[in-house]
Amino acid sequence: MALYSMKEALNKMLEQSRWKERYLAEKIKLDWEKLMGITVAKHTRDLIIKEQKLYIYTDVAPLRNELSYNKSLLIEKINQHLEENFIKEIILC
């Protein structure tokens, strides 16, 4: 019988189920303020993750512009937070 930590057991269960993408998407949404800060989170209307693409909805043009310049850094930051190469592309709306 193999012994796993709780984290390893949960990761193994998620990988064997269809829930992994949903779990990672919800984790991004829940941790958005921690990842981006209060100001960015406050001006983010919605986050949608489909097919490893993160759609960021904001009505603030300067924020959208700033995020567009830093897409690769943002992808790296999110994937590092998730400890997985999950987000492949960011689309600003």
Describe the overall structure.
This protein is α+β, with helices and mostly antiparallel strands and 93 residues long. 57% of the residues lie in helices and 18% in strands. It contains 6 helices and 3 strands. It has helices at 6-16, 20-30, 32-36, 38-42, 61-69, 71-82, and strands at residues 44-50, 53-58, 89-92. The chain has a 3-stranded mixed beta sheet with strand order 1-2-3. β1 (44-50) and β2 (53-58) form a beta hairpin. It is elongated and about 50 Å long. The N and C termini lie far apart (49 Å). The model has no long low-confidence stretch (mean pLDDT 90).
- Rg for CA atoms: 15 Å
Number of helices: 6
Most strands sheet: 3 strands, mixed
What kind of oligomer do you see? single chain
Instruction: Give the low-confidence spans.
Output: none
How much strand?
15-25%
What is the arithmetic mean of pLDDT? 90
Number of strands: 3
Report the principal-axis shape. elongated
